């Protein structure tokens, strides 16, 4: 999997980062969520780095403190992990890249653009 850096939101001793992949997905680096390997916590502002007209295909839960918990597939490929500078308190998940919903579709999603 090839990663393209899209943006970073450094805060609170972490470096949540967003990457696009060559597989029509995003890899999202964020803070570990206790006892969950399929989730990361990210600052809400990180989603501002999504490619225009897209949204994440994973489930987002608002923490009420300026961050989301995002669920996705844990990234375990060692070649991919070698491309990411990740401290011990962080992990990353892969989520599908979806087209942003059109206005009036009744769908709510975190989007950019």
UniProtKB/TrEMBL annotation:
Tell me the superkingdom of the source: Bacteria
* Protein name per UniProt: Uncharacterized protein
State the organism named in the record: Herbihabitans rhizosphaerae
